[in-house]
From TrEMBL:
Domain GOLD residue range list: 29-117
Leader sequence segment: 1-19
Annotated organism of origin: Angomonas deanei
Protein name listed in UniProt: Emp24/gp25L/p24 family/GOLD, putative
Keywords in alphabetical order: Membrane, Signal, Transmembrane, Transmembrane helix
Length: 242
């Protein structure tokens, strides 16, 4: 059998009703009532949210005080926000019918539901956005140091860091090119100096050889002259003795 659970939701024009969360039972129907006191023509916002694995097995419908269907989703959506116009104030009915297959397929059986004045809902969202953009609690302890400014600072810092890295990469490329050119010309310079050194060694060797040759030639000439002089002296001495 289908079981119905009826819960009254008071919606006042000057207040905003917070969303409430409840569980549904596979194979059963759960209904709520909401006393809508807003005037005709007022825009009402209906929001509900459930797991994506649950929505294919749930159908949801909302009827006004005269029984006219204001919204019907079969199957339901995982999350939606619908605007309806009040034509018949009074007790509205909200019913959710859940198939038995949800017991084995759905990962969660909870639904979040909210029914409130559309203008107040929009105002609440605007206040929350302004609060998140200016609140020290939400944005940081320092004045004018919100999350948005922090994100902008981080993005700017990351951009500067990226530029620095690119500049370093370019400098590294240029330095590598200079080193390669230097290595190529270094070998050429070393080869030139090596040739000059070899030529200098050859010239010095030639000069040394020439000097030694002259030195030995002069020495040998002097020895020959000394032997000749000695022979002359011996010849003169032998004559005198005769």
């Amino acid at each position: 059998m289908l079981a119905q659970v009826v819960i009254s939701l008071l919606l006042l024009l000057t207040t905003t009703t917070d969303a409430f969360r409840f569980s549904i039972t596979p194979g059963k129907k759960k209904c709520f009532t909401a006393d809508v006191s807003q005037e005709e023509g007022t825009r009402m916002e209906i929001q509900y949210r459930m797991a994506a694995s649950l929505s294919p097995f749930v159908s949801i419908s909302i009827t006004d005080g005269k029984g006219f269907v204001l919204m019907e989703h079969s199957p339901a959506q995982p999350a939606t926000r619908t605007i309806v116009v009040v034509k018949h104030p009074g007790t509205w009915g909200i019913c959710l019918n859940t198939a038995e297959k949800a017991l084995h397929s759905a990962t969660a059986l909870t639904v979040t539901l909210n029914l409130q004045d559309a203008a107040e809902a929009e105002g609440t969202r605007t206040q929350k956005q302004q609060y998140s953009a200016t609140s020290p609690v939400q944005l940081g302890t320092g004045k004018n140091k919100g999350a948005y400014r922090q994100m902008k600072y981080i993005a700017k810092l990351a951009h500067q860091l990226q530029g620095t890295v690119k500049h370093l990469l370019v400098e590294d490329h240029v330095l590598r090119g200079i080193m390669q050119e230097a290595e190529r010309y270094t070998w050429q310079v070393v080869l030139v100096y090596l040739m000059i050194a070899m030529a200098a060694v050859g010239v010095n060797a030639f000069r040394v050889r020439k000097y030694l040759k002259r030195y030995f030639y002069q020495t040998s000439g002097k020895e020959s002259q000394a032997r000749r002089n000695k022979k002359k002296v011996e010849a003169i001495n032998s004559r005198l003795q005769q």
